[in-house]
Every structure is written in structure tokens, then in C-alpha cells.
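Colleagues,

For the teaching module next term, I've prepared a clean inverse folding example: a structure given as C-alpha cells, and then the sequence designed for it. I'd like students to try predicting residues themselves before seeing the answer, so please don't circulate the second half yet.
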């Protein structure tokens, strides 16, 4: 199983197009969107190519391949533009290994405030725009960074779960963070 993760698109059409090209190139079966899909948030500048209707149109073409959760900037109005559900605060995915993958945006649950997780489970979240892939205590923390507004000097990035490796990658193929999961 190969999963592709993106977070914090914030309605940027060029960033979404770039991300979808990488998703296609990756060979992943599923695109996991960790929230803040269409709205830019008043605390951020208006992103380059801000076009929520065009972003939703493009993402809807991949609707059957998407698992999405709601970010703090996502609303019911945003859901009206999307053909796939994205209003859940979290979702669970059971991996072939038996590990559970907890998907959330990061504004409610995150590495510092985790739900009940067992040893070896993974919490995947965005929100901070900072890439992370590491074992922290008994669980793995995974954040693909942001494709639109990377922070702390990082480049725009996305994440991949391929077999037993979590990694965060830039669009220039630089690995920003990685860890093996077992």
C-alpha cells in the first residue's frame, strides 16, 4: 500500500496542480488530504494563484482516490464545492501491518495532544506547515508540511507512506524527514 499525503493547500491552484502531478508520478493509490484545502485563512497572505473553485474542480477529478479531513480553515461552504467528504475532524485507516493511522488536521489533535493510540500507531497531521516523520514515545508522528505555505525555512513538501517508510519530500525530491515504521 502506498499513500500520498498533502496538507494546507489553502486554495492555491498552482500548488495543487504541482501536488497532483507528484501524486500521479508517485504511483500511490490514495491521496490523503490533511485539511485546509480551499480557504487561505486571514492570518496568511492570499496565496499565489488563489482559486478555490478551480482547486475544487481539479480535486473532484480525483474524488474516488481521496481521504480528507477538515482543517480549521475548512467550512461547510467548502464542502459544497467538493465531491468527496472532508468535514470529519479525523479518520482512521487500518494498515496492512495492523497499525492504525490516525488522520487529522492538527488543530484539535496533534503530537502534543493525541487520541488513544497504541504502540506503533501513527498520527498524521498538518496545521503547523512543518515537516515531521519520527518515532515519538510509542507512536509515530507524521506531518507532510505544506504545499502552499511552508514554514521555518522549509520548502514546499508532501508526504508518502510506502510499505514501512514514512517520508516527507520536497518537489525537488529532497527528503526532509523519514522514518521506518514497524
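(Answer key — instructors only)
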Amino acid at each position: 500500500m502506498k499513500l500520498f499525503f498533502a496538507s494546507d493547500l489553502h486554495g492555491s491552484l498552482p500548488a495543487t496542480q504541482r501536488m497532483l502531478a507528484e501524486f500521479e508520478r508517485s504511483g500511490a493509490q490514495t491521496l490523503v488530504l490533511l485539511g485546509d484545502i480551499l480557504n487561505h485563512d486571514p492570518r496568511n497572505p492570499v496565496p499565489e494563484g488563489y482559486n478555490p473553485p478551480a482547486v475544487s474542480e481539479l480535486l473532484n477529478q480525483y474524488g474516488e482516490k481521496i481521504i480528507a479531513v477538515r482543517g480549521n480553515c475548512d467550512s461547510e461552504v467548502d464542502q459544497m464545492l467538493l465531491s468527496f467528504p472532508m468535514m470529519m475532524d479525523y479518520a482512521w485507516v487500518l494498515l496492512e501491518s495492523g497499525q492504525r493511522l490516525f488522520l487529522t488536521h492538527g488543530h484539535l489533535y496533534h503530537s502534543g495532544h493525541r487520541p488513544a493510540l497504541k504502540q506503533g500507531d501513527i498520527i498524521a497531521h498538518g496545521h503547523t506547515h512543518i515537516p515531521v516523520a519520527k518515532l515519538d514515545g510509542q507512536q509515530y508522528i507524521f506531518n507532510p508540511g505544506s504545499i502552499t505555505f511552508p514554514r521555518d525555512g522549509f520548502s514546499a513538501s508532501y508526504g508518502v507512506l510506502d510499505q514501512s517508510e514514512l517520508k516527507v519530500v520536497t518537489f525537488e525530491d529532497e527528503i526532509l524527514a523519514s522514518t521506518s515504521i514497524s
